UniProtKB/TrEMBL annotation:
Cofactor: pyridoxal 5'-phosphate
Residues covered by region (Disordered): 211-231, 405-431
PANTHER family in alphabetical order: CYSTATHIONINE GAMMA-SYNTHASE-RELATED, PTHR42699
Source organism of the structure: Cafeteria roenbergensis
Protein name, as recorded: Gamma-glutamylcyclotransferase
GO terms assigned for molecular function: cystathionine gamma-synthase activity; glutathione specific gamma-glutamylcyclotransferase activity; pyridoxal phosphate binding
Keywords: Lyase, Pyridoxal phosphate
Source lineage: Eukaryota, Sar, Stramenopiles, Bigyra, Opalozoa
Highest taxon above the source species: Eukaryota
Family matches, as CDD domains: GGCT_like
Pfam families per record: ChaC, Cys_Met_Meta_PP
Lyase recorded as keyword: yes
Length: 733
């Protein structure tokens, strides 16, 4: 083929031309060709391999020429963003090259694609709706380096171990994989090969390559900007990621892992290897980090000989701690200082430290009852279960205004039959230590039930725990009234404001009276403070004006002693991001309020919306008494980024919405990207899948099919548009 003098040259790329064109062009468009599939069936004797050990690069294969059991075809049903039509398409990038440089560029491309590639014409369906003619370099099946169909596992092994003049083969693969994911057109074949790296033992090789590729394709990081990572997450707008992807992409420390469909969430909970084999990131209690697996054997022998005195921390640890404490002080206000903040490994550790310290002080005084207000996040409930309350979510709770259960602190059952009143529990445990009981008021807006629980158990109460607002129903308690109840009986008040963040809600000082509210505040810094989703941390704060802490001066020292500090690297990471947390909260709050009101307007398909300013049960008014003012131009206070929505139509409606939503989908919240999860399915799968469990959820007002959404830093209009696309169309007038 010859270049026509005076004419532009148009080429469409689907491999390395996508991420490294290497020439000047005057126009480019993302687009796809119909009737073909991209496959790693072409050998590379030079660029990514050697003549005697071919690497693997992509070529095009007419649809229908692959084996019937081709992994890409099988995976397509699970890959987000891949529908039936995508099985017969290959996505790539079209470039228009100016006539002035077309001849030289064409000669360079012929040399670049010399190992078996010829030139053909294709019609490219571009994202702007225009179909354009283009040239494409294609390794046809008759060329000498065509290797043909192979299992994904074999292809992955070759890619992981090959290299050529242009660099490692895995670099080529990772750059193409990252490019397709970033633009929202994940390729089933690429995903099938990526999944095969794990069983081959080369997962770390791919993770490092994807991390490097993603970093180069994202806007450059600005060390002076604490929200640099959060801004990169939001830069491309709301978007979904393939199953098992880390968020941030390629970050081996990510606590957010993509579970992009309800089927994936169910598969994870059921232990389906097709799902769990791809989940290599997430909260440590869910996933054993790959680095830990590699490190375990190496350190075991060394530590047994050298001991822990060989460990050390970087010199900057104290500076990171001071910076992070300062950010918590800035968020909470209330007259606290850095000495009033204990840094913790996680939010769960923060609550545990408060819980353990209160028990240490109160149990010798005969106070062994905790009052739980509202349906609390699973982490907090797990502490209550493990260290005092036994099976806090068992199905046999008595059907009364408050619920009770008990267990000895050694973990032995203190009662049978799924729960009992504290007096009954205390008489039948047989535990070495006297059991601690938990009384539960599941509806934090039910002032009468709360008052009744205090009236019956006030003299025995050690402490009260609540979230304001709660997770995932985003309900708020009358915290001033709760303070009055605690003062009257001498119980400790522990509050967790993580859902909205202390930037949005003040749980230390009553805005009406100026008096103190919480005694202790347990907080997850993984949310909002660690806005790129790559670090875990927590904090416990004391109220310097707390009457209870004044009466028990040793309690704070005990709490601080139970706080486990984060590692130096984690501290440095969250300290580098924390100063941008206020902006994350303010941006997410504005979008959350707009999204909540949009969803409330969709009564045709939305059953209920739960958010900080919701009207149901007076929760919104209770929240407003604690909320901090919003930005200029709005009468709304800050509400945090989190809302939950229940759709009409049960599981099928939730499945359709969640699967179609263009957003990060997985656990956590308060990061730079909009993030959704089917909360009950992931947090309480045992309850969702049993009749008694669903009854308990119903009594708590928690739908098994609730979808929690955390609004990120993308433009509000983009988030609203993504949600609207995922919902059924509005009925015609």
């Amino acid at each position: 083929m010859a270049i026509k003098e005076g004419e532009d040259f148009v080429v469409w790329g689907y491999g390395s031309l996508v991420w490294r064109p290497g020439f000047e062009f005057i126009e480019s468009h993302n687009g796809y060709v119909e009737g073909y599939r991209r496959r790693f069936w072409q050998g590379s004797p030079e660029h990514r391999g050697r003549p005697d050990s071919l690497g693997r690069v992509v070529t095009l294969v007419p649809a229908g020429e692959e084996p019937a059991d081709d992994e890409a075809t099988l995976l397509a049903a699970k890959a987000p963003g891949v529908d039936a039509a995508d099985l017969h398409r290959a996505h790539g990038t079209l470039y228009r090259i100016s006539a002035a440089v077309a001849e030289d560029t064409f000669a360079a491309l012929l040399h670049r694609e010399r190992a078996g590639y010829g030139l053909r014409s294709v019609r490219v369906h571009c994202q702007d709706g225009v179909v354009r003619d283009a040239n494409v370099f294609w390794g046809a099946s008759e060329n000498e380096f065509f290797v043909g169909a192979q299992p994904a596992a074999d292809i992955a092994k070759v890619i992981a171990t090959s290299a050529g003049q242009s660099g490692p083969n895995v670099e080529y693969f990772a750059r193409l994989l990252a490019a397709m994911r970033r633009r929202g057109t994940p390729d089933p074949h690429l995903e099938a090969v990526a999944a095969a790296f794990g069983p081959n033992g080369h997962a770390d090789v791919l993770d490092r390559a994807v991390a490097a590729a993603s970093a180069e394709q994202e806007p450059p990081s600005d060390p002076s900007d604490p929200l640099s990572g959060a801004r990169r997450l939001a830069a491309a707008g709301p978007r979904s990621f393939p199953l098992g992807s880390a968020v941030p992409a390629g970050d081996q420390h990510s606590v957010v892992v993509s579970l992009p469909t309800v089927a994936h969430c169910e598969g994870y909970e059921e232990g389906d290897p097709a799902v769990t084999s791809l989940v290599r990131h997430g909260y440590p209690r869910f996933v054993v980090h790959s680095l830990l697996l590699r490190l375990h054997d190496r350190l075991a022998a060394e530590l047994s000989q050298a001991g822990c005195d060989q460990c050390h921390t970087p010199a900057g640890r104290e500076a990171a701690e001071a910076r992070l404490r300062g950010s918590v002080v800035d968020a909470m206000g209330g007259g606290i200082g850095s000495d009033d903040v204990a840094l913790c490994r996680s939010g769960m550790n923060a609550f545990y430290a408060a819980f353990k310290a209160v028990n240490d002080v109160m149990r010798p005084r005969g106070r062994r009852v905790w009052l739980q207000i509202g349906w609390l996040y699973v982490d907090t409930t797990m502490v209550l279960e493990r260290f005092s309350a036994g099976q806090a979510l068992c199905a046999g709770w008595p059907a009364s205004d408050w619920e009770a259960d008990a267990r000895g602190e050694d973990g032995s059952a203190a009662c049978s039959g799924g729960g009992a009143t504290p007096d009954a529990a205390a008489s039948g445990g047989g535990a070495a230590t006297e059991p601690v009981s938990v009384v539960r008021v599941l509806d934090p807006t039910d002032d009468a039930a709360i008052a009744a629980a205090f009236a019956e158990h006030g003299a025995s109460l050690a402490g009260v725990i609540t979230e304001t607002p709660s997770n995932p129903l985003v309900q708020s308690v009358d915290l001033a009234q709760l303070r009055d109840h605690c003062d009257a009986c001498g119980a400790a008040l522990v509050v967790d404001p993580t859902v909205a963040s202390p930037f949005a809600v003040d749980v230390l000082t009553d805005s009406a009276s100026g008096g103190p509210l919480a005694d202790l505040v347990a907080l997850s810094l993984t949310k909002y403070f660690g806005s790129d989703g790559s670090v875990m941390a927590g904090a416990l704060a004391r109220n310097p004006r707390s009457p209870l802490l004044a009466a028990h001066p040793g309690l704070w020292a005990r709490a601080a002693a139970h706080a486990e500090p984060s590692g130096a690297a984690d501290l440095a990471c969250v300290a580098g991001q924390c100063e941008g947390a206020r902006e994350v909260v303010e941006t997410g709050s504005a979008t959350c309020a707009a999204l909540a009101r949009y969803l409330e307007s969709r009564s045709d398909c939305v059953e209920s919306v739960h958010w900080a300013l919701q009207a149901a049960g007076g929760s919104g008014e209770k929240y407003r008494r604690l909320a901090r003012p919003g930005g200029a131009g709005t009468s709304d206070p800050l509400c945090g980024s989190v809302l939950s929505v229940v759709l009409k139509g049960g599981l099928e409606a939730a499945r359709a919405f969640y699967d179609a939503l263009d957003a990060v989908k997985g656990p956590s919240f308060g990061i730079g990207a909009t993030l959704a999860c089917p909360f009950a399915l992931l947090a309480h799968y045992d309850l969702v899948t049993s009749e008694d469990g669903r009854k308990l959820l119903d009594r708590a007002g928690l739908s098994p099919w609730v979808i929690r959404i955390s609004c990120g830093m993308e433009p509000t209009a983009a988030v609203l548009a993504a949600v609207e696309r995922a919902l059924p169309p509005r009925p015609s007038a």
